[in-house]
User: Fold DoxX family protein from Virgibacillus kekensis.
Amino acid sequence: MRQLSMTNWICYAVGYVFITTGIVKLTVGQFKVIFSSLGLPYPDSFLYLVAIVEIVCGTLIISRLYMKRATAILIFIILAAIYLTKLPILASQGILMFAYEARLDIVMLILLLLLWQRSGGKTLL
Assistant:
């Protein structure tokens, strides 16, 4: 049996998280309320855009295609998510609750940065 590299495992895990998150955002109505509460213009459009981008980029990462671009886009999305949804927790509830609520976001950010650093593969240009 062929052993998979650590990078492959990270690609599968990151891709899985973003694909499932994107699908849930498209199918669970509660996310419309969440996006509306963030103060973004056109929250429904942002919701669909983010969900589709997460699904597409997650699929590209699993496929090991356009890794540099896909990870860069997802890094931007995760940083925006931390800024919009987790930093208010830090300000209102403290560091412990922030650390708890942001744990998946921070782990995904670290994994995305590792993939971005190691990425090669096909590029658009």
